[in-house]
Amino acid sequence: MGVAAIILGGVGIFLTGMILLTDGLKAAAGDALRSGLQRFARTPARGLASGTAITALVQSSSATTLTTIGFVSAGLLTFPQAVGVIFGANLGTTSTGWIVSVLGLRVSVGALALPLVGMGALMRLLGRGRVAHGGMALVGFGLIFVGIDTLQVGMEGLAQRIDPGIFPGETLPGKALLVLLGVVMTVVMQSSSAAVATTLTALYSGSVGFEQAALLVVGQNMGTTVKAALASIGGTVPVRRTAVAHILFNLATGALALALFPFLLAAALWVVGPGEEVVAVALFHSAFNLLGVAVLFPVIGPFARWVERLVPETERQLTRNLHSSLTEIPSVAVEAARRTAVAIAVELFRQGQGRLAGRRAPQPGPPTRETAGEALVRLRSFLTEIHTAPGEEEQFRRHLSALHATDHLERFRRSLKEEGPMDAELGRRLNEALGAWVAEVGGEEGPVPSDESLGTVSGEIADSRKARRAQLLEEGVVGDLDPETIRVEVDGLLRLDSMAYHAWRTAHHLRQAAPRGDDGSAGEGQPAGDDELSPGPGWDSGWDGSDDHPAEMGGAATRF
Questions:
Q1: Mean pLDDT, contiguous 10-residue spans, the chain (560 residues)
Q2: d(CA 64, CA 506)
Q3: pTM of whole model > 0.85?
Q4: CA-CA distances (angstroms) from residue 452 to 218, 494, 506, 533?
Q5: Which of 47, 132, 368, 406 is the right S-S partner for 41, CB 3.0 to 4.6 Å?
Q6: What are all long-range contacts of 467-475, with beta carbons under 8 Å and residues at least 24 apart?
Q7: Angle (CA) 167 173 179, round 5°
């Protein structure tokens, strides 16, 4: 077998191990990694620590960065918080170099690696749930060392055929070429970890020199920005800002590494001692990333504000939290959908206030680039792309409630389009309830508003509709009212009832769709069907025995 084939196979085995380790650990942890990242990244400093720890655990800065981009897109993290996580992810990814230089090349783990693969495969075949996912992670961990062993064999053969002196490095163009080669290696392999492992193995076998390996590592570190840039294409403003921050940080650390190259490299070799060039390169990799954090973290606030000016916010978009990449993280995707539904509800409830106050224009609010109807179409499409795995009861509850809320928002929107007069006093009470809910929402990161006020008003309107309809029909029988007057007034009551009912059900399901523990009652229990809940004890829907609540039926004329 040729040397090139052995090296290619070693890279492939290493990459496969990295993928299995990353995916296995993420799946085995379930939402623990995601919820932990969200919980512990509340400040930039904690975000830095979280990004470092999670990246070192899952061995993928790209996975951490893409998850962070998803969190920012969903509105779960603010941009300054995300910047801290990105700094940490870049620092955490340097742990791969230490694994390769200290364990992979120094300790003979080949004999242990294959049993690990076998044990992991058995866990995957015989186990279930987290045990099976843990087995895949174990397989990946073993394959990483099998790949390193294979790379080592290939690089030893390459070292016999190639003189390291043929690689440039002494001149400025030569150094730039090596850095560019490192970037290309990361882009081609789609993993800076695999590229760094290949470089360290080549250095250990003598295929490349000490300084050449260090320059390649600088380029490989900068190459991780490509995946983040690709993920941001077509993304929302927060997504693009996060990607720009990632790119700028890596470029800054790369510039620092090159500017202080001889000093950092000499210091790393002095720390580990002569003859430990492989470990020295791993230390150099960690050192210039740590230096980048030390330089930029004290000014993380101004840095974040500068990126925000670089990628300015345009007109508000109701569906700005929806991004196609989020569907790969169902729990985050559902939260993004819920927050989008809240934004649409605020927009429609403002329109409802204008309608009830006799204005065709909505209540004043920030301008949007899309109508509520367009936003609902995109939200429904996004929700259908999310797939909740069987057995995930909490996720199922939230996903189902988000779908319920979307359906009621669409019905509320349709009720706004119906023309005709409505009862002034009942309309005033509904107007106040809608306004109170909108005011309580505040920002999307605020507490989940209660549905109690809307539920109470909905019950009152339903009771009034039932009593008034019966009274109107009686007056029609005795000749006090003509049929057309009765129809117009009952249509108005039904229209008002429809608006109140769907507003209440929207608020209820948005509360049910909130993550457990956001407030005292949100997220408790399973989502009840719309026929199973009422605004309060003793509430009478006012409907007179037909199968559907009037608000679930067609236009006002058909409901009469």
A1: 67 70 61 60 76 73 68 72 83 80 62 75 77 77 70 55 55 82 80 79 81 88 77 71 86 90 89 84 90 89 87 73 74 85 91 79 57 89 83 83 94 87 85 89 65 90 87 78 80 89 93 67 45 38 39 37
A2: 34
A3: no
A4: 58, 21, 12, 12
A5: 47
A6: 467/542, 468/493, 469/493
A7: 65
